[in-house]
Design a protein that fits this description.
Blueprint (H helix, E strand, L loop, with lengths): L4 H12 L3 E2 L1 H9 L7 E8 L11 E5 L10 E4 L4 H8 L3 E3 L1 H8 L7 E4 L4 H4 L3 H4 L17 H10 L1 E5 L5 E8 L4 H17 L10 E8 L5 E3 L7
Length: 229
């Protein structure tokens, strides 16, 4: 499908535009070119050194309006927790059978939750899930006996994040079909959590830059001062 001339002109102007805008205006500019099906990403550059354990920022945030994606949750567990996971709406439930599927490269889920008592078995697929950032981890709330709570949170839009080697945190902020208010509130939720997680040892400017982009659009820069950081 050919893109309209107006769309292409907007796209070109955004590519050349390096100005930073208050969050509401940045969202509005991105919304003007984002297609409904496109995923919206927020990239936040932090003033931390990820090589230092006490500055390796990682956590999770429940997006107020979800991610716009239907999240498939797998629960590694056994015993009475199986029925709890099923009642909460988990998509895959079990232990050895899921491990075997993963070992074959058949990963039919987006998030993996595990109860602590089965982590020894789940470690068999650490080399497969780890590089995909899908390995259950207590810090992200994916190793827990509170199975129902974890499943419902991820289904509702809980997103894990961690700072990369370059000091950047990437997180989904919704879809192009979201309203400007929904996008803005999702982005603000992430920024609020990042500010809460600021390492005590971090020095200087903590949030250095913020950029929003859609799947097929250039970035729109956010004025860091507009978020009260």
């Amino acid at each position: 499908m050919k893109r309209s001339r107006v769309y292409m002109e907007k796209h070109k102007k955004m590519t050349l535009d390096q100005a930073a805008y208050p969050l509401p205006e940045a969202v509005a500019r991105l919304k003007s070119v984002a297609r409904d099906w496109e995923s919206i990403d927020v990239a936040v550059r932090l003033g931390v050194d990820p090589r230092k354990a006490d500055q390796n920022v990682r956590g999770s945030v429940v997006l107020p309006h979800g991610s716009g994606k239907q999240v498939r949750v797998a629960v590694f567990t056994k015993g009475e927790k199986v029925s709890e996971a099923r009642d909460a709406g988990a998509d895959l439930i079990g232990l050895e059978e899921i491990i075997e599927q993963v070992q074959r490269g058949n990963i039919e889920f987006d998030v993996a939750v595990a109860t602590p008592d089965v982590m020894k078995e789940v470690s068999k697929v650490a080399k497969v899930l780890g590089p995909r950032r899908m390995m259950p981890n207590p810090k992200s709330g994916t190793v827990t006996f509170e199975v129902a709570h974890a499943v419902k949170e991820f289904k509702a839009g809980k997103m894990d994040f961690r700072v990369e080697k370059a000091g950047i945190v990437h997180c989904v902020a919704g879809k192009g079909s979201f309203s400007e208010r929904q996008m803005e509130e999702n982005v603000q939720a992430l920024l609020t959590e990042l500010l809460r997680l600021k390492p005590a040892s971090a020095r200087g400017v903590y949030i250095k830059s913020i950029a929003l982009s859609a799947t097929q659009s250039p970035s729109v820069h956010v004025d860091v001062r507009s978020i009260g950081a």
